[in-house]
Design brief:
single chain; alpha+beta; Trna Endonuclease, Chain: A, domain 1; four-stranded mixed beta sheet; two-stranded antiparallel ribbon; 6 strands
């Protein structure tokens, strides 16, 4: 069986995200809400023409990588509409803006102001921990 750790060894954002979704698959019985976690494939394009086609269909630069559309009451006074995660490789942690582009930073700021919980996570384990915190919170 392929483990999350095996997938993350590539050192790429793809490997980290694949590891996170492998962990979700392995833990969906304990956390059935993980069924609704999905990826937003902003970073995948084979050609410039494919990217242009996707933009014509509504693709937006900077949208976070992962979404869990599950509203939660975080405390008795704060309702959030869902969770967004921008996933980075761990070595990007100390880069300018935490490794986020201006467009990513703008989206995260907008989503927080719109009532979503948002995180920039560095590696699949960090993302897993934020998801568990969100689900168990």
């Amino acid at each position: 069986m392929i483990t999350p750790e095996m997938l993350a060894k590539s050192g790429t954002e793809h490997g980290e995200q694949a590891a996170l979704f492998q962990w979700c698959a392995l833990n969906i019985k304990e956390y059935p809400q993980l069924k609704w976690l999905y990826a937003i494939p902003n970073g995948f394009f084979a050609t410039a023409g494919q990217k242009a086609k996707m933009k014509a269909e509504g693709l937006k630069d900077g949208v976070p990588d992962i979404c869990l559309p599950l509203s939660k009451v975080l405390d008795k006074y704060k309702l959030v509409s869902g969770l967004y995660i921008e996933l980075k490789i761990p070595k990007r942690r100390n880069h300018k803006n935490g490794g986020c582009s201006n467009e990513q930073y703008e989206w995260l700021t907008y989503l927080i102001n719109a009532g979503y919980q948002c995180y920039v996570c560095y590696g699949w384990e960090d993302a897993r921990d934020k998801i568990l915190e969100y689900l168990n919170g």
